[in-house]
Amino acid sequence: MHYVSHTRYSEHQRIEAEFRHSRLQCVPYAREVSHIDITGDAFLWWAKAAGRYARGNTPHVGAVLNFRPIHRMPLGHVAVVTAVLDSRTILVTQANWVPGTITNDVTVQDVSPDNNWTEVRVELGNSSALGSIYPTYGFIYKSAPIETVIARNGGSGNEVAEAPVSRPVAAEAPNRNLQ
Fold it and tell me: Contacts from 14-17 at CB under 8 Å and sequence distance 24+?
């Protein structure tokens, strides 16, 4: 009798397997896991996200936490949020934090004085100890940004309206002239 075993892999395990035999970097891994289509060094992501993706200081599952460059991390870093444990603690999946490896469910804690995720500490290895303080830009979300428009009507009040950023219109439109 012949038995066949089928193993079910999570999306993160599938992606991890794809990246295992390549030169591992945080940017392509975060792009693949988050589906946020930004390229270039990690420290450029915040600026490149402007106008394309919403950005903020509240963690959400699937968002990318964007680390600022520092002397021991000159290209910055990106990690994808996999769980929000509380307002100041999240879990992330990331590549190359430990050189050449993908680490999953790593604890990251907000230690910023204003509770705005501009400074974080990252779990060391498989311990519950947290490492040094790292500066961050914040979170990049998969959704389109929301623009705020203030309208003045000549009176004493202002009205605020929010709408998604408009998408560019294709250069060619169908010919709808009646023949």
Answer: 16/102, 16/104
CA distances from 125 to 102, 105, 138 (A): 12, 11, 23
Quick: pLDDT tens for 81-91: 999 999 999 99
**CA pseudo-torsion sign 18, 141, 45, 133:** negative
Neighbouring C-beta atoms of residue 73, cutoff 10 Å:
16
Residues 55-77, mean pLDDT to the nearest whole number: 98
For residues 87-100, give the mean pLDDT: 96
Angle between helices 11-20 and 26-34 (to 10 degrees): 150
Using an 8 Å Cβ cutoff, are 90 and 108 in contact?
Answer: yes
Which residue segments constitute the domains of the chain, with CATH numbers given? 11-140 (3.90.1720.10)
Residue 97 DSSP code: S
Per DSSP bridges, beta strands 158-164 and 130-140 are unpaired
Please give the radius of gyration of the chain, using alpha carbons only, rounded to the nearest integer. 21
95-104 mean pLDDT: 94
* CB neighbour list of residue 155: distance below 8 Å, 6 or more residues apart: none
Q: Collapsing DSSP states into helix, strand and coil, what is residue 177?
A: coil
What pLDDT was estimated at residue 111? 99
Residue bearing tokens 């919403």: 54
